[in-house]
Design brief:
This protein is 36% helix and 15% strand. By secondary structure, it is of the alpha+beta class. It has a five-stranded parallel β-sheet. Strands 11-15-14-12-13 form a five-stranded antiparallel β-sheet. It has three domains: 291 residues, 3-Layer(bba) Sandwich (FAD/NAD(P)-binding domain); 135 residues, Succinate dehydrogenase/fumarate reductase flavoprotein, catalytic domain (Flavocytochrome C3, Chain A, domain 1); 141 residues, Up-down Bundle (Methane Monooxygenase Hydroxylase, Chain G, domain 1). The model has no long low-confidence stretch (mean pLDDT 96). It binds flavin-adenine dinucleotide (FAD). Flavin-adenine dinucleotide (FAD) binds next to helix 3, strand 2, helix 6, strand 6 and helix 7.
């Protein structure tokens, strides 16, 4: 492989690239499409959208998920909204502004052409969702309503209360089920993809485990789309569901797909603080709440008074103070770090001292309780159910938590990985968000990839190739299946003393402490050493009860944890290599005198794509240089 990656970005002016690319690339004739099989792993917005659209086009699609229904893909959890440059508010929005905000928000570490295409497609996404019946919030006159998310000065976020992901997913699901009924899409649910088959230089199929019986099965295809979501549970505690994992993309990585920017993770500022040692996940309180909620801490460290007893003059509205231009709606990386700074200074609230207030008193006075309920009612209810505190009367307590991963499998402009025939969409690819994702942009990206980009680029990859060249009965499939079988047997044979959960919690602690909101060389070296010890402990002292040929949750989780351990180590190595601060990646050694992230564009304006070299061997890094032709690269400021 060359040491410089080619993103295959089409030439010509930014604005026309995607249109021209679509014109320039070959199609598959309607009558031939049913001869091609496409595997789509994942039924979230990216995977479900791609499967439904490929099915509608006439391809033969197999769509996999680990849950019992596509409706439980983790996209269902998204709360706050989805961005689009419709400029319904007439407040100065445009495709260019969305593009600019996204590149700046990602701290100039994403690819211009991909981000521009995302901004262009954003408007079509909203039309498609409305056509599918997604009940977006509307203004009194019937037009679609918008709110703001962090890092922007316009209102471009479309939403359905605090349940936007669920409603969008139901739209995707309807489209998908239409294709299931039409016979173009076959759902393969409660199956986990555990390995990838590459033969004759192309991705040819997957090995998946039936999660109910434990049987390993082979599935062959002419192209494969990975849309398996994010891997934040590498931190153990995160806002993601416990089942979210990195196994499918890690398997692709080990079979040759490069892994890009693994250290770029997003620690979201507004989550309910951890309450105890044995909690299995954390709960997000949507960023949309920062439209109306004001973030503050007591001025005096260790102030024992309750929030309602602290007068205005003794409060520190630290985001409004430090970032007057964007106030409470600064991007997530900035808000998270600012919260950590005040908590580290002893001003944090709650029993642990790791919490800040998100206060709606002003909003309730200004807008009335009914309006606040209309906008955020379900989030307020959820908060009260979890904390037993009523946010209409007492400010919410929030603290940053791992939430989203900007890193993922490297893809070119076609969303194709470094393995021909293997495409990657949604949170699973590294794509468009650089070093920090702006709020409400993940749903946008998932649907852009799924509904619009992948169906077109997968078609171009199939055009001209003979369908069904490699069969599941082939040697290549047999070899990968045998390796997978051996891996599960190995996990069961350890018969040590430590549970998966215990080892996962240990990994999470190391990751959060050393590869979390701020990082430094010595901490990252410690993390690499600690993760190495954990890997030893895992393979020597893990205990997995039960058998392979049955529903075995512990075995599933053990297999995923083995991957998280390797991935966690790569995240630490990537963070150690990146001797700069950018977006969510803050190196203590590289900050401005005001404590803000200090980029090093001269040496680090590139995507770091890592190549697997075998178990126990160090990865090698390949660079994709980032070139900015349409945007002036500046120091990011929200002051
Ligand atoms: C609590 C929360 C709130 C959020 N709110 C917002 C928001 O308001 N706006 C926004 O833009 N973004 C939001 N996000 C981020 C956004 O929801 C996700 O990035 C996005 O939905 C991911 O979609 P996806 O299609 O890539 O993956 P997912 O929806 O996670 O789907 C992954 C799919 O892959 C399947 N899968 C995974 N592994 C395997 C395997 N090995 N084999 C077979 N199938 C597999 C799963 O079963 C699932 O079907 C939020 C995220 C969280 C956690």
């Amino acid at each position: 492989m060359s040491t410089i990656l080619n993103a295959k970005t089409p030439a010509g002016p930014l604005a026309g690239k995607w249109e021209r690319h679509k014109q320039d690339n070959p199609l598959v004739a309607p009558a031939n499409r049913r001869k091609y099989t496409v595997i789509v792993v994942g039924t979230g917005l990216a995977g479900g959208g791609a499967a439904a659209t490929l099915g509608e086009l006439g391809y033969n699609v197999l769509n996999f998920c680990i849950q019992d229904t596509p409706r439980r893909a983790h996209s269902v959890a998204a709360q706050g909204g989805i961005n689009a440059a419709k400029n319904y508010q007439g407040d100065g929005d445009s495709i260019y502004r969305l593009f600019y905000d996204t590149i700046k928000g990602g701290d100039y570490r994403s690819r211009e052409a991909n981000v521009y295409r995302l901004a262009e497609l954003s408007t079509a996404i909203i039309d498609q969702c409305v056509a599918a019946g997604v009940p977006f919030a509307r203004e009194y006159g019937g037009t679609l309503a918008n709110r703001s998310f962090g890092g922007v000065q316009v209102s471009r976020t479309f939403y359905a209360r605090g349940q936007t992901g669920q409603q969008l997913l139901l739209g995707v699901y309807s489209a998908l089920m239409r294709q299931v009924a039409a016979g173009t899409v076959r759902l393969v649910h409660r199956y986990e993809m555990v390995d990838l088959v590459v033969d004759k230089g192309r991705a040819r199929g997957i090995i998946a485990r039936d999660l109910v019986t434990g049987a390993l099965k082979r599935f062959a295809a002419d192209a494969i789309v990975m849309a398996t979501g994010g891997y934040s549970p590498v931190y153990y505690l995160s806002t993601n569901a416990v089942n979210c994992n990195g196994t499918a993309i890690w398997a692709c990585h080990k079979r040759g797909a490069l892994f890009a920017n693994p250290c770029f993770t997003q620690i979201h500022p507004t989550c309910i603080p951890q309450a105890g040692e044995y909690q299995s996940k954390l709960t997000l309180m949507s960023e949309s709440l920062r439209n109306d909620g004001r973030v503050w801490v007591p001025l005096k460290p260790g102030d024992p008074r309750g929030p309602n007893e602290i007068p205005e003059a003794e409060r520190d509205y630290f985001l409004e103070r430090r970032y007057p231009a964007f106030g409470n709606l600064v991007p997530r990386d900035i808000a998270s770090r600012a919260a950590k700074t005040v908590c580290d200074a002893g001003q944090g609230v709650g029993l642990s001292g790791f919490g800040v207030y998100l206060d709606f008193t002003d909003a309730i006075q200004r807008l009335g309780r009914d309006v606040v309920t209309d906008r955020y009612g379900n989030l307020f209810t959820m908060y009260e159910e979890i904390t037993a505190e009523d946010p209409y009367h007492v400010p919410m307590r929030i603290y940053p938590a791992p939430h989203y991963v900007m890193g993922g499998l490297w893809v070119d402009y076609n969303l194709e990985s470094t393995i021909p025939g293997l495409f990657v969409g949604g949170e699973a690819n590294f794509s468009d968000h650089g070093a920090n994702r702006l709020g409400a942009s993940a749903l946008m990206q998932g649907l852009a990839d799924g509904y619009f980009i992948l169906p077109r680029t997968v078609a171009s990859s199939l055009a001209g190739m003979k369908p069904g060249e490699v069969k599941a009965e082939s040697e290549a499939f047999a070899a990968v299946e045998a390796e997978t079988d051996a891996r599960f047997k190995r996990l069961l044979a350890i018969k040590g003393t430590r549970t998966v959960r215990d080892l996962h919690m240990s990994l999470g602690k190391v990751m959060m402490k050393e590869v979390g909101m701020s990082r430094n060389a010595s901490g990252l070296e410690t993390a690499i050493a600690e993760i190495g010890k954990l890997r030893q402990a895992f393979w020597n002292d893990l205990r997995v009860p039960g058998e392979a040929a049955e529903l075995n949750k512990n075995l599933e989780q053990a297999n995923r944890l083995a991957d998280f351990i390797e991935l966690g180590e790569l995240m630490a190595r990537d963070a150690l290599m990146r001797e700069e601060s950018c977006g969510g990646h803050l190196r203590d050694e590289h900050v401005t005198p005001e404590g803000e992230a200090k980029r090093d564009d001269e040496n680090f304006m590139f995507v770091a794509a890592w190549q697997w070299q075998g178990e126990g061997k160090a990865h090698t890094m390949i660079k994709e240089p980032l070139v900015y032709e349409d945007i002036e690269v500046k120091t990011r400021s929200y002051k």
